[in-house]
Structures are given as structure tokens and as C-alpha cells.
Amino acid sequence: MVVSVNSRGTLTLPSDIRKKLNIKEGDHFQIDIKAGKIIITPVVIVPKARLSEKGKLKEKQASEDIKLKRVKSFETSEALLKELDELDNKACDIAKKETGKAIPYRKLRKELGLD
Fold it and tell me: Which domains are present in the chain?
């Protein structure tokens, strides 16, 4: 199929192509050139999320923590889960001393069949 470009540089997609690809007025596309060919790819524009004041503060604190290296990284997800289990057990030990009872959260989830 051959189409032409008008004086404003507009290229009109024929209606049968628009119908076949469900292209509607206002849809957005990424246009690239590869090996001398024009590649047109549909894209979805996602509006930038707007954070509440509380969210902005949390984001600022998180960025500061990263900058000051007050974060911990793990090589594997298993290592992260092991650390969380250890922290959970420590928290339960403290709760048990203070209240006389405590069940580790992850253990409780496993016993209830939630994990």
C-alpha cells in the first residue's frame, strides 16, 4: 500500500490498517528509523504519579538513606528472607518477654497456609 505525505508532513494511515490494528484518534506512537526503514510502534503514555506531601517526605527520606548508605542489599531473595526471619524472631523474643506470648509473623503465615 502506498501513501503520501502532505505539505505539513502528515502521513495518513489508511482506515483498513487503523481498523485492523484498533488505532484510534489520539493514540501515541514511537517512531524509529532502522536500516533505512520507518518503524512505528504503539505506546501507552502513563501520567507521572503525584505524591502526597507524606509520600514526598518518604521519598526524600529514602533517597537520603540511599545516599548515606543506610540501606542493606542482598545477593539473593533467599538471603533477604533469612534476614527477615531472623529479625522477626528477635521481635518475637522481645514481645514474649514483654507480653508473655508471641508468634513469628512468617511462621504464623506458614501455619495458616498463606505462604
Answer: 1-46 (2.10.260.10), 53-111 (no CATH)
